Amino acid sequence: MTSNQVIIDLQLACKNLHGLPNRKMFQSWVSAIFSIYKKKIELTVRIVDIKEMHYLNWYYLKKDCPTNVLSFPFTPPLGMKSPLLGDVVLCRQIIEYESKEKNVPGRSHWAHMIIHGSLHLLGYNHIVDKEAILMQRVERNILQKCGYRTCCHVAHR
Question: Which positions does UniProt annotate for Zn(2+) binding?
Answer without folding.
Answer: 116, 120, 126
